[in-house]
Structures are given as structure tokens and as C-alpha cells.
## 1
Amino acid sequence: MSDTLLQDVTDGIAVLTVNRPEALNAMNVALLQALDAALAALEGSDVRAAILTGTGKAFVAGADIAAMAEMSVADAQAFSVLGHRVARRLEEASFPTLAAVNGFALGGGCELALACDFIYASEKAKLGLPEVGLGVLPGWGGTQRLPRRVGVGHARELIFSGRVIDAAEAQRIGLVNAVFAPDALLDAARATAREIAAKGPCAVRATKRLLLEGPEQALTEANAAEVRAFGKLFGTADQREGMKAFLEKRAPRFEGR
Ligand code: HXC
């Protein structure tokens, strides 16, 4: 773990904190690589939910503009590929990922939040994709994930205008699920992560995959995948434990297998 990316894993819940407050947590290659490695290492561990957040007044104020300013076409594409890889790791993680947006989530920061399964925000959060104001575009998946999250109309308006919105507006358009007082944000994210962690891990994992892959499939194909996944869970110890615990009127003790 690097100084610029802090990690805490407690009771199966990982909290990854981008810690470069002097640059409002702007992401450079080293930080992206650290996040990539941290997420890779969590795969296959007993982590059941992860929270991504930032230190200070920013979640992530974007990709590092100073690092990008002199990039060649090839450098820029490689930087885009790296950010996409990290975003995809968040999206495809075998456990739910939650963005706790404590402050500025701009450009690449908003794009990383969008790659998480859902977003909670502080009342102080500001979100947006202001890249066109720099003469570039959202290059870590924003042009694709924002419309999928909030609909094409809101996405086009936000991306073309580069407008930055507050947490209340972000909640109104469905970009963030819920808004909390700054001091309550992380506790709220942890509380939801704990709820998730208490559920059957095989079931949550399978559900996440269906939710991710379904929109890329025809409805009949996606429904067939759901049928297969539902049936497959009956080959897990989690299913037997979950139903047995219900019938015995006790809390389940899931093992994730
Ligand atoms: C590099 C950044 C930065 C960034 C802030 N800083 N954002 N450095 N890259 N994205 C640095 C500032 O240069 C400054 O450093 C310090 O952080 C504090 O920022 P201030 O601007 O002084 O703070 P404030 O006045 O509060 O303004 C906050 C802000 C503003 C509104 C968030 O910093 C801002 O507009 N930042 C850029 C946001 C943005 O355009 N993001 C999109 C980037 S493009 P010094 O050394 O002066 O103290 C992108 C592309 C993704 O993300 C896809 C790539 C493929």
C-alpha cells in the first residue's frame, strides 16, 4: 500500500481512501496503479464489500491535469486505458463497491465513482464531468456510464456543459443514492456495507454479475442467465445455510461457498 492510497479492512469491509489531499486527490499513474493493485489483491480475499473515498475536501478532483498537460496522443490513450482498467475492476469486483463521495468528484473522480455499484455523497459533494472545459473528454468511462446511470438527457447536458452539480441535484437525477452530513457519510457507507456483508456472499456475487451483464444482453438471454444463476446457488452451502437458518429462526452463518 502506498502513502497516497490508504487501506483498511475490518470485518470483511475494505475502505480504500485516496490520500493526496494537497492535489485534491487527483489521480496520476502511480495512484491508479496502486488502486489497481489494491483491488486485485482484494479478489479472492474474504472481503464482502468495499468503499472508495478520499481524504480532505475531495473524493477525487479528476485525473492529474499537470501530469496530462504534455501527454502525446499515445500517452493519453495509455492513461485512458489504465483508468478504464481500474474502473472495470471496481465494476467487476466479486463484491459490491460503494463510492462515498466526501467532496469534489470531478472528471476521472466522478468516473471512478460511477464505476462503483452505487454512490453515497456528503452534503458538501460536488460532482461533474468538466473535461470539455479542458479541451478533452471523459476518458475513464464517463461517456458510457453516466448515461446508463442517469439517462441520456441528463448525461448529455452534464457532459456537454461540463457543469458541476451539488449533492442534492446529483441525488435528484439518480447519480447518487443518498446524501449525508459530512461526518455521517462514512458511517452510513459502512452500515450499508455491513448489511451487504451479512448476506449470502455467493448470492450477492452472482447478483452483481447479472446486474452488470444483463444490460448488454437481450432480455430473454439475461433472464435465462438469471435462471441458471438461481439454480446454481442450490449447489452452495450458503443456500442450505440461509434457508435452514430461516426455518430454525436464527441468523445465518454464511461461509461464501
Ligand atoms: C491536478 C489538481 C487537480 C487536478 C486540483 N488540483 N484538481 N491538480 N489535477 N485534477 C490541485 C490544484 O492545482 C491545487 O494545487 C490544489 O489541487 C488545490 O486546488 P485549488 O484549485 O486551489 O482548490 P479550489 O480553489 O478549492 O478548487 C477546487 C476545484 C479545482 C474546483 C476542484 O481544483 C478544479 O477545478 N480542479 C480541476 C477539476 C477538473 O477539471 N477535473 C477533471 C480533470 S480531467 P496547488 O499546487 O496550486 O496548490 C479528467 C480526465 C479523466 O479527470 C480521464 C482521463 C483519461
Note: Residues 23-24, 26, 61-66, 79-80, 83, 104, 106-108, 130-131, 134, 139-140 surround hexanoyl-coenzyme A (CB under 6 Å).
## 2
Amino acid sequence: MIGVFDSGVGGLTVLEALAAELPAEHFVYLGDTARLPYGTKSAETVVRYALQATEALMRYRLKCLVIACNTASAVSLPAIRARIVNVPVIGVIEPGAEAACAASRTGRIAVIATEGTVRGAAYQQGIRRRRADAQVTAVAAPLFVALAEEGLCEGPIAEAVAHHYLDPLFAVPRPPDTLVLGCTHFPMLMRAIRAAVGTQVTIVDSAQTTARHVRRTLTESALAAAGGRGSLRLLATDAPQRFARVGARFLERPIEAHEVELIDL
Ligand code: DGL
């Protein structure tokens, strides 16, 4: 079983990419909907929540744990890795940073994320570690989270918000050539984001790059499923109905409320 953890439904974008990359694997996804959002909370609180979620997921005898939440990946990976030493733990930040460095010609890279991810500076460090000359600009774009959950991913409101966050980064003389979507929710707004930055910018979706990274890790450690059909188990810490309704848009397939198991951490 592969465990996937997020603060709520946003990580279903990562799960979708994982299931497409690894169709024979069995997944258990935990959304901590009772305590969402993580993006505005202190690092100490996010680490505490992430460790509790890790304990809950470890009951499923995991062979790999994916931290789909960018905010949790940014601040809690060392603590989680120290807690579960025998299971590979993969966050979304390092694969995203690697893809950004590979994509950028100029070294000017923009990152949009939650407040907590920007403050934690993990993307900035991950990029500079690989490319010392990189000029990284990271800004928080919290309204994108609300828009994605409301289903307002296209149209005038999404476009206005995209311009609000992205014009100061891109409507400048020497703009970045690469933009990292450093939050689970942001791939949902791809069209509005693309329209705001134009066609010349490479957009790095950390969900896709993480899925490829997980496949590589499983293959290299001979842990990948040999074949057959995969499965998905959904867990939430609050409001399974809402999880099913909002989550269906993120997963791009219907979810019945009874498919979502309510758990306490
Ligand atoms: N999952 C979070 C992230 O990727 C976004 C939502 C939240 O703030 O909890 O950073």
C-alpha cells in the first residue's frame, strides 16, 4: 500500500497523477479536513499534525509514504523521516525543485505557494542547492486555494486573481522563464495561470513530477507492484460529504460519500 497524505482534498491532484503513473498500486489517501488549511498555520503545528497523520497511515503497512501537501512537505519531512526509518517518504518539494531547475534556461524561477510554504523556504533552498545562480521569487497566493475549492477555476474572477498575483512577477523587464505551482490546489487553475503568464513560461506542476519520482523510487528499490489492478481507499478527519463533493473535482471522477471513511487522529 502507498500512503498519500494531505491537509484536505487538494492532494487528490497528486493522487490522480500517482494513479496514472502507477495504475497497479494500492493507495490509501488521508485528507486532514478537520484541521485544514495548513498553509496559514505555524510550522510547529503543521509538524505535529503531519506526525499524527503519519501514525494513522502507518497502520496500513505502507511501502511508501507520499506527502502530497506542499506546506507539510516544506516543514515536516525531516520529522516524518526520523519517525519512520524503514519506509521511503517522498514530499512534493524536491521533485518540483528538480523539475524547475531542469526547465529553466535563465535561472529566473518563480514559485507560488501557500504562506507556510513560502515562509518555510524549502522550494527556494531546493532550487538553489541544485543551481546556485538561480534567482528565485516566491510569493503566497492563498486566494487560489479558495477559488479551487469553490470550483471557480476559470472565468473573470480566476483570471483577475491570477493577474493580481502573477503580474508583479511576470510583467517586469526580465521575467522568470519558469513558474512552479507549489500548492496542491494550483493545477486546478492552470488555464487562468497560463493566460496570465503567457505561452513562453514553463509551468512546473509538482504533482506530475512527484508521481514520476515515486515511480522511480519504487522501481529502484524493487517495491513496485508486479501487475494487476490498483485500488484506492479514502480517509478524512471531517465531513466525508464535503470531501466527496469537492474532492470529485480534484480527482476528476465522482466520489460517493460512503467511499470516504471518517477517522480521528
Ligand atoms: N495542501 C496545501 C498545500 O499544498 C494547500 C491547502 C492548505 O493550506 O492546507 O500547501
Note: Residues 6-8, 10, 36-39, 69-71, 114, 117, 145, 183-185 surround D-glutamic acid (CB under 6 Å).
